[in-house]
Amino acid sequence: MDPQLAIQELEKMGGDGLTASELIDLKNTGGMTYNDFLILPGYINFPADGVSLETKITRNIALKTPLMSSPMDTVTESEMAITMALLGGIGILHNNCTPDEQAAMVRKVKKFENGFITDPVVLSAQNKIRDVLEIKHRLGFAGIPITDNGKVGGKLIGIVANRDIGFREDVDTELSAVMTTDVVTARYGVTLAEANQILRDSKKGKLPIVDAEGNLVSLVARSDLLKNRDYPWASKHPQTKQLLVGAAIGTRPADRLRLAKLVEAGLDVVVIDSSQGNSSFQIEMIKHIKETYAGRVDVLAGNVVTRDQAANLIAAGADGLRIGMGSGSICITQEVMAVGRPQGTGVYQVSQFARKFGVPTVADGGISNVGHIAKALALGASCVMMGSLLAGTSEAPGEYFFLDGKRLKKYRGMGSLDAMEKNDSDNSGSQARYFSESDKVKVAQGVTGAVVDKGSIKQFIPYLITGLQHSLQDMGVPRLSELWPMVDGGKVRFEHRSAAAQIEGGVHDLFSYEKRLYK
C-alpha cells in the first residue's frame, strides 16, 4: 500500500487498545487494580514542562497539583500540611488528637504564609524583652508591632525586631526602651502587591497596615514575600492569600464541636473520615455542615467505592468524594471484613457517576508510584491522596530509628490497634473512623509497620510532579483538565496487563541494580 494512505487505513481499522468502559468490564474481568492495566501512548506536540496539572478537589477549591496527604497520625500534621500547600498540593490534618490540638495545627498552617496577617501577635510598650524571646522560641519570629494597648486595633507606637533585642542582656527591660518608633507603614486598603512593593523598597521585615487614625489593622511579612518567590505554585485562599488546609473529623456529636473550633481557626475543607461513608451518621453530618457553615468550608465526604454509596452523599450535599476501601498498604479491611473493592474499579465507577453532578473525586489508597497517580487520574479521579508514599519523609510526624542498617520511620494504619489506643474514645479519630469507639473488643482493620527514610517532600513532591507531567505527555494530554474528556471520548486508550506483562514492565534479568528515582 501507499505509505501516504497510512492514516486513512488506521481510520478504517480503528484505534488500538480499549476504551475505559471496555477496560472496566465487570462481567468479564472483575475488579481491577492499578497494576492490572496500562495506558497506551498518544501523540506528543508539546513539552512536558508545559503540562498543566491544575485540578479541583471539591466544587470550590482548585489546586495547581493533584496531590493530597492523608489524614493519618503518622503522615499529616502541621509541618506536612504547610509543605504540601507550598508545593501546590494540600495536607489533611488527622483527628487522632484533641479538638484544641487539631485547631492549633490549622492555625499554624494558616499563619505560616499569611498575605495580610489579620490577627498578628502584638505587645504593648510595658511588655519586656523576655516576652519577645518567649514568642520567638514558641513561634519562630521576633518582629512584633507595639500598640498602646497591646492589641490589634490599638494605636501603633512602634515595632520590635531581632536587631533591637539581640545584644540586650537585661531581659526585664521594657520594650519602650528598645522599640523602633520610626515605623514604615501602609494605609488600610492597600493591595497585597502594593504592600509587597513597599516591603521591597523599604527593606524592612514587617509592614504594619494602619487605618486613618494610626490604629493597627493587620501586618504583612517580608518572609512571606520570599516564600511567594520560592513557591509559585503554593495553594492559597484567593482572598486572604493564606495557605489552604484540610482536616478530618468523624460523625459523632462531639465532632460538631470539633468542627466549630476548626472553622474558627480558618479551615478550608473538612474531610469526613470514615472507612464506610454510606451511613445515616455521615449524611446527617454533611447536612449539618451545609446548614451551619454554608460558603465557609467545603465538604469532602467518604469513603466510598460504589455508585450506590456515592449517590447518597452527593444528594446530601458533598462537595467532593473520597474513594477507597481496603486498598492502602497498611489496611486489612478487605481481608478482615470481606468488604471493599479493588481500587481501579472503584475509582472509575464512582468518578464516572460523580462527574455527572460536578463533584470531584479523590483516589485514596493503593498509590505507590508516579504511574499509579497517572492511572488514578486517567480513571477519573481529580486528585490522589497519599499515605505510604509520604510516610517516612522528614515532614511526617515521628522520629527516625535504625534497624539492620536502614533509617526508618513508623507508619501505621488508622485502623490499627496502635492508633486506636492512642487517645481515649472521645478524642480518637481512629476509633470513630471504624465505628469502634463503643466496642468492648477492638477489631483491627490496619497494621503498624515502618517505612524507609525518603528525605524531604521538598525534593520528593517535585519528582512526582515532573513524573506526572511526563506521563501525561506520553499519553498526548497537554493539561490535566483535558484528560477525562479524552478518556471519555475514547482518545486515550488502555490495555489489560497479564502477570507476565507486569514482570516484563519492571526491572528484570539483572544480577544486581540500583534504583534511584530522582536527583
Topology, element by element:
Blueprint: H1 6-13, H2 20-23, H3 26-29, E1 37-39, E2 55-56, E3 62-63, E4 67-69, H4 78-86, E5 90-93, H5 99-112, H6 129-139, E6 144-147, E7 156-160, H7 162-165, E8 186-187, H8 192-202, E9 206-210, E10 216-221, H9 222-230, E11 246-249, H10 253-265, E12 269-272, H11 280-292, E13 298-304, H12 307-316, E14 320-323, H13 333-337, H14 343-354, E15 361-364, H15 370-378, E16 383-386, E17 400-403, E18 406-412, H16 417-420, H17 429-433, E19 448-452, H18 457-475, H19 483-488, E20 494-496, H20 499-504
Describe the structure.
It is a single chain. The protein is an alpha/beta fold and 519 residues long. Helix content is 34%, strand content 16%. It is built from 20 helices and 20 strands. It has helices at 6-13, 20-23, 26-29, 78-86, 99-112, 129-139, 162-165, 192-202, 222-230, 253-265, 280-292, 307-316, 333-337, 343-354, 370-378, 417-420, 429-433, 457-475, 483-488, 499-504; strands spanning 37-39, 55-56, 62-63, 67-69, 90-93, 144-147, 156-160, 186-187, 206-210, 216-221, 246-249, 269-272, 298-304, 320-323, 361-364, 383-386, 400-403, 406-412, 448-452, 494-496. The strands form six sheets. It has an eight-stranded parallel β-barrel, surrounded by seven helices. The chain has a three-stranded mixed β-sheet with strand order 8-9-10. Strands 17-18-19 form a three-stranded antiparallel β-sheet. Strand 17 (400-403) and strand 18 form a beta hairpin. Helix 12 (307-316) crosses helix 14. The longest helix is centred in the last third of the chain and has 19 residues, at 457-475. The two termini are 47 Å apart. The mean pLDDT is 87.
